[in-house]
Amino acid sequence: WEADGTIRYFVSGIPEQATNEDLFQHFLQYGKVLDAMITQKGGTSRFGYIKMADDSTRNSMLADTHQLCGRTVTVLLSKESLIGSGLKKAHIDNCAEISAEALRDAFTRFGPVLDVHTPKDHQTGERRRFGFITFGTDEALQAAISVGMITVESNEIPIRAATQNSDKGKSDPWAWCPWGKSDWASRGPYGCVGKGDVWVPSG
Fold first, then answer.
1. Is 195 exposed, middle or buried (0-12, 13-18, 19+ CB in 10 A)?
2. Residue 91 vs residues 22, 94, 138, 149, 163: alpha-carbon distances, Å
3. What whole-number distance in Å separates Cα of residue 154 and Cα of residue 143?
4. What is the per-residue pLDDT across 66-77, written as a single tens digit (0 to 9) for each?
5. Helix, strand and coil percent figures for the chain, each rounded to 5
6. Would the pTM of this model clear 0.90, i.e. be above it?
7. 152-192: per-residue pLDDT in tens?
8. Which GO terms describe its cellular component (predicted)?
9. Which string of b and e fits 42-76 if b means at least 16 CB within 10 Å?
10. Domains (ranges, CATH) in the chain?
């Protein structure tokens, strides 16, 4: 949320023929649109930003499927609007080979998804094996955590509540095991590898 109470959304996958006016007109159905701007950096796909007067239609904007000039576009909260919003975040694992779009589609079963973050390794540029899903409601977060694991594109994705440390990329290596350290010896924890007669964290 912005300091003045407005809220800003990021829109990706915008087709070449779409204009600022097209973007503006589409989102009028959700309330007062203060600004609509499409941009493009280098050879990347076009994206844009929508600034709304308030967040009264936030959940429907994020949950609905949006068509702009015949193409489906993705709508997420902008990074600025996510900061300090007190929104609910889940930590996921084993997602390095899955796109942010596929993760978002998979997790919307629990409720509105505001952001999908899959960080990259600063040295190699490759995506790391964990990520974060930010939900719009506590109910959605709790529903995801209670399930504990879902399958996305044949990959089992463990789910747990994000902590301050995990959000900074400094999570306990045992956190990769969905049933934790206490039962690792008997069950052969997920995300861990055998070393001799014992299991150790693979990270």
1. exposed
2. 36, 11, 14, 11, 8
3. 21
4. 999 999 998 888
5. 25, 35, 40
6. no
7. 999 999 999 887 655 544 444 444 444 444 443 444 444 44
8. chromatin; nucleoplasm
9. eeeebbbbbbbeebebbeebbeeebebeeeebbbb
10. 7-82 (3.30.70.330), 86-161 (3.30.70.330)
Residue 87: pLDDT band with limits 50, 70, 90: low
- Three-state DSSP at 94 gives coil
- Note the pLDDT of residue 199: 41
What's the rounded Cα separation, in Å, for the pair 141 and 89? 7
Closest residue by Cα to residue 98 from 125, 130, 65, 137: 130
Kindly give, in sequence order, each residue whose CB lies less than 8 Å from that of residue 91, ignoring residues fewer than 6 positions away.
130, 131, 132, 159, 160, 161, 162, 163, 166, 167, 171, 175
Nearest to 150 by CA among 88, 95, 200, 71: 95
Residue 163: phi and psi, rounded to 5, are -110, 170
